[in-house]
Amino acid sequence: MSTADAAGTWKLGDVTVNRMGFGAMRITPNPDRQVAIRVLRRAVELGVNHIDTAAFYCSPGGTLRVGDGEARYANELIREALAPYPDELVITTKVGPGEAPERGFYHATTAAELRTQVETNLRQLGLDRLDVVNLRIMKKEAGADSIADRFGALADLRDAGLIRQLGVSNVRADHLDEALAIAPVVCVQNSYAIDLRREEDALIRLCAERDIAYVPFFAIAGAERESGATPEDSSAVEAIASQHGVSPQQIRLAWTLHQGANVLAIPGTGNPAHLEENIAAGAIRLSPAELAALG
Length: 295
Prior knowledge:
The protein is an alpha/beta fold. The chain is built from ten helices and 13 strands. The strands form four sheets. Strands 3-4-7-10-11-12-13 form a seven-stranded parallel β-sheet, covered by helices on one side. Strands 1-2 form a two-stranded antiparallel sheet. α4 links the parallel β10 and β11. α1 packs across α2 and α7 crosses α8. The longest helix is centred in the middle third of the chain and has 15 residues.
């Protein structure tokens, strides 16, 4: 059985992780918490040592707008499943978006709001320090949406010992430059897939030149985003999947990893069978001709 190390490794700042990781967004919908617990523990058994999460990943409602029963938070499920955490496990979370009873869904814009979100992640995960925190932003026009104050606030929390390393999410190259002028950036996390936002190719190369990980989300879902796996793949994806005897979703993940040695995959699922398929995609090697056919 393939394990996460088949995809190779990348040095995420001062720690090394397997390039095939796990995204926690989809572990919350099932009212049976034990399913999420099994998926998380199995992911670690299969060599996953990089988990992406957020305090606002929750059900019912939440980012996915699904589910019923009692509130289930991805961070709390991770803690229940994996604490005390293995030494090699890196948990990356994000701040910016948040949910509060009195406000609903909101975006943090002040140092105080960002600190509250960091402290919420610490409490839910049962940690004294967060491994990696991404500043997730809402993009506007170039030059009109500085991240300096918000990223600076997180840099202050890093200096205070609450955060080990920093990243940015949903950003452009000029945002990355702005952040790097303040503190080191270990990862950029943007939406990207074989059929989604291919203008990001240039940013992937820029990150590689700077030894920064590029961590795409929606690699499987593409334009369907939170709705899940795209219902229609290109004929090239379908044909190559058939040739390899794998699913189109696995080809999409394999293609993602082929975009650069600095690209990490964080496919998420609450389905144990899908988890094993996702991990196995890290062992798929696509030929130059197949990559050309995929575009």
